[in-house]
Specification:
GO molecular function, one term: protein serine/threonine kinase activity
Shape: globular
Protein name: Serine/threonine protein kinase
Order of helices and strands: HHEEEEEEEEEEEEE
CATH class of one domain: Mainly Beta
Radius of gyration: 38 Å
Pfam family, one: DUF4232
CATH topology of one domain: Immunoglobulin-like
Largest sheet: 7 strands, mixed
Keywords: Kinase, Serine/threonine-protein kinase, Transferase
Mean pLDDT: 78
Number of helices: 2
Distance between the termini: 115 Å
């Protein structure tokens, strides 16, 4: 009986120790499990949250890629007259050493030689269109439009000597001779830029 009682006591004692050991182990594991699952202010962002170098450069590349007055020249192409309308290409060669892009409408106005404005700036005609990529030496163009004298009762403007042009997105103007361009009928508009020197 005494032996049996000692054995039983030892088993009960061992059971308590085992239970206490198990509880302590669980308590030791629990904080690690919680820390692994809980968000931490010190944790580094995942790869998906970090922008790549290409993404970071996107806006800067877009701005620097635009053709400007510094990298372009401008001239008027051959006048096309038909059905009472006058169309004149406004040609933009890329004179720079790197490729650049143009998209949208140029700002266009007419002046006398000393800079006095003639009439009003050209209005926009048609859609903005797609971007035109110009390698060095390549050209884009927009088309100026007016009508022949007599098509409308609206009087013609004075004959312009210069055309002042702001490339799309540029705040700097360029000028070119007009070879006697005269706007009539109060109609003077310009298309968006297109590839090539002419259509």
């Amino acid at each position: 009986m005494a032996v049996t009682a000692l054995t039983l006591s030892a088993c009960q004692s061992g059971g308590k120790d085992s239970a206490l050991h198990s509880s302590a182990a669980a308590a030791a594991v629990a904080p690690h499990g919680k820390a692994a699952n809980a968000p931490s202010a010190d944790r580094a962002p995942s790869a998906a949250q970090v922008p790549s170098a290409a993404q970071a450069r996107t806006s800067a590349m877009t701005a620097s890629d635009r053709c400007t007055a510094d990298t372009l020249s401008v001239s008027l192409g051959r006048t096309d007259i038909g059905a009472g309308n006058i169309h004149i290409p406004l040609v933009f060669p890329n004179k720079g050493k790197t490729a650049c892009s143009l998209r949208g409408f140029p700002g266009v106005s007419l002046t006398l030689k000393e800079g006095t404005p003639v009439g009003k700036p050209a209005t926009r005609s048609g859609a903005a269109g797609d971007a035109v990529r110009l390698r060095p030496g390549q050209s884009a163009h927009a088309v100026l439009h007016t009508v022949n004298d007599g098509v409308s009762d609206t009087p013609c403007w004075s004959t312009a000597q210069l055309v002042r042009v702001y490339p799309p997105g540029s705040k700097e103007a360029m000028t070119a001779g007009t070879d006697g361009l005269r706007v009539c009928g109060g109609e003077f508009d310009v298309t968006s830029v297109k590839p090539g020197a002419t259509d």
